[in-house]
Amino acid sequence: MLKVNDLNVYYGAIHALHGVSFEVNQGEIVTLIGANGAGKSTTLKTISGQMRSKTGSIEFMGEKLDGLAPYKIARIGIAQVPEGRKIFQQLTVEENLDIGGYTQEPDQVKAAVEDVFKRFPRLKERRKQVAGTLSGGEQQMLAIGRALMGRPKLMMLDEPSMGLAPKLVDQIFDIIRELNRSGVTILLVEQNALMALRLASRGYVLETGRVAIADASENLLKNDRVKRAYLGG
């Protein structure tokens, strides 16, 4: 479904990604783990068109993404839930969702909103509430709901558990699991490596902008290097 090949990305003179390559198959949950500054978020931003790679290629469902504007990438079925949620704080829940539906025809937006409300009843209860007054967990649900408005084939989530209480983290991971069961392929960036690897079928470990290890999640959970660096073991 998604094939990423030899990405080299720079922030000015800083070489952030060094030949990053990986793939995500349809129906999978794949996770990228690594320390802060390892290049995880940069990888997602490059896939979604916010950053440009000096080399390599990105292919989605057989279509080259290289050089496409972010809105065009969204329209072919890739949605990103950004780090820190980045909802529109001064707008209502419903207005945030309407903005997320910009890739859809107007008559499809209402149906998409109702689909989000069926998945997140709490958002329906707060549909007229200003988004900035929601709890952290509710804001994360809204960020995911906004991404769902475009009916994506692939959803990329960047640190969805950040700043949430443990009980809410469990709830958000349950939501991600259910999204995947409903047919959405997931690419997950997550600092909570243990939960991410328990959720995903495969994982890639990024270290200083390079893919250091790639393996099935069950093997990464047993890998001594991964355990020492990311699993507290």
Explain briefly what this protein structure is:
By secondary structure, this protein is an alpha/beta fold.
Explain this structure.
The protein is globular. The chain has helices at residues 40-47, 70-75, 93-100, 106-119, 121-125, 136-148, 166-181, 193-199, 217-222, 224-230; strands at residues 2-11, 14-24, 29-33, 57-60, 63-64, 78-81, 154-158, 185-189, 202-207, 210-216. α3 runs parallel beside α6. The protein starts with a strand and ends with a helix. A six-stranded mixed beta sheet has the order 6-7-8-3-9-10, sandwiched between helices. It has a four-stranded antiparallel beta sheet with strand order 2-1-4-5, covered by helices on one side. The model has no long low-confidence stretch (mean pLDDT 93). It has a domain at 1-77 and 185-233: Rossmann fold. It has ten helices and ten strands. 39% of the residues lie in helices and 25% in strands. By secondary structure, it is α/β, with parallel strands linked by helices. β4 and β5 form a beta hairpin.
